[in-house]
Amino acid sequence: VYGSDAVAGVVNIITDKGDSSSFNLFTSQPSESGGETTRADFTWANSTDKLRYRLTGDYYKREELAKGDRDYFSCGEQYIFSPSTGERRDVIDPRTDSPRCADLIWGHVWIYDYSGTVPNRAKAQYDYDGDLANYIPGFDAFYEGPSSMSTPPGWFPVAYDRTSDGVTNFDHPFQDAESLIPNTEIITLFGETSYDISDDHQIYAEALMSRRENEVNGYRQFWSYTYNENFFNGNAAPTAQGWTGAQWMSATPITDQNDSTVSIDYTRFVAGITGNLSEDWMYDASIQYSKSDAEYSNQRIFQGHMKANNWGSANGDGTCAGTITNRGVPCMDLPWFDPRFLNGDFTPSEREFLFGWETGTTEYTQKSFEAFVSGPIMELPAGEMSVAMGIHYRTDEIVDTPGPITLDGDAWGTSASGITQGKDKTNAIFAEIDIPLLEDAPLVKSLNLNASGRYTDVDSYGSDTTYKAGLNWEITDTVRLRAGHGTSFRSPALFELYLAGQTSFIGQRSVDPCLGWGAELDAGNISQELADNCAADGVAPDQAGTITATVFSGGGAGYLKAETSDTTTVGLIWSPEFADLKISADYFEINVEDEVGQLSAAQIVAGCYYSDSFPNDPLCRQFDRDPIMGHVDNI
Known about the structure:
With 635 residues, the protein is mainly beta. Helices cover 10% and strands 44% of the residues. The strands form 7 sheets. It has a 15-stranded antiparallel β-sheet with strand order 1-2-3-11-12-17-18-19-20-22-23-24-25-28-29. Strands 9-8-7-15-14 form a 5-stranded antiparallel β-sheet, with no helix packed on it.
């Protein structure tokens, strides 16, 4: 646990000290294009009587594998089976008589109906192929007066029952371009050297440099909120011509402007001295410096330009033409209900107005000094008693600077955050003793006790003492028993402590389990306990998922404690003489307390309403409900 407790033994990696040199080349070519890998590495070494040095290099390249590169990723089926017959029960697309593709839906207008005539959960979908009327009814089938919904020609309600689910747009060409395995390139150089300054003392040094680059192609939805042509009178949206009735809508286009790149430069330098203090005692002292310098770039949607096209727009009617945006450019009215726009087919000016790249940086620096000595202290009947003791000093520092769009709070659909900056200092002393207790006794070929202790002081947390003790009992030449118990702790990481305050937004449909709880209870989709808790909190049975919730998160400096653990292990090893074979059976139990983690917004809200101690569960204090609209907010 935390890299300090070995459950079933320890693997020590010792670098090659010889003079051997080599070159290797590897390539892998799948039978279909995409996902190709190439790797080349070399090592070159030389030595004299006192000087040794080695240089190694490694190059790795993996080409992108996009979903469209493989036929079996082209349609994400549901794979639902009947529990009684075992037959497939997927929703069927009547246009193909095959299971429907169930990936990201696209090109819809989400409907918030106040007339009671539109089918529950229905979304408006444009008839791109001109054949939807062959499979499902149009909006006129549900028309019952002036408040009912009417649309321009070519629009149909979908996603409200199994038949309409079957013709819902799910499989967009953008999906085929999405990275299943990203394009990755890694270059690594490592050098080490040592020099014997005398017969008993040696200085050494290491240098490691690496660079990793990743490129990821993605796609996403984005949406606005607009009143239709004649709803809310003076606030009617000119962009919603032909959409009438007692509804407001959320047009949800799709876009492939969701790519990202990451490049990380890592350097590490070590210098030290080691040698013999006497015939039996040795020492080692070293300093280390490492730095990770990363740049991450993302495509963003401008929040201010989206808001300018919502119902709270500069002109008060869903339009903004003639005004200047928060980014200092002329505002553009976007054609939210144009099937072309919903399909992700944007004009160059629309693309420039909506999307932009930004680059953020993360620097993580660590400096450390460590020294230890080890050797025997006395001779016992069963062998030498040996000890090791040492000191450790380390500083860690992080500076994470998001891109300018995120810093300005102008990135739609993602977190608005500040600069994360913090440092920590760790001091430790440690000691270990190895005691041979018995040797060549009845049922004891050898019995050794190993014990260690460590005192650690961390600026951000405080101090703690940890220990570990273990027995290694060689019963016979072929049977050995090992057992151990230890403690350890992990102080919160810098990112967990100093993460700058972030603000993000999440849709009610993704976060509120109480939406429409009356109908959901009647349909048997939720438990009575959940319905009772929602009702007790004043949530209306027909609560609609409309306005997004605001989510706040940040670092826990001053609140978080260190994680602690206890580990117990027992193992039996059998090495029979008749075969080159080892068999082990191990029992281990690890208990971790005060684990540091982060709950999502949905977990917090659901954890409250599903709790047996509602409304007194602490999670219920982590969010509000708007007293007028009833929606979840401020999580």
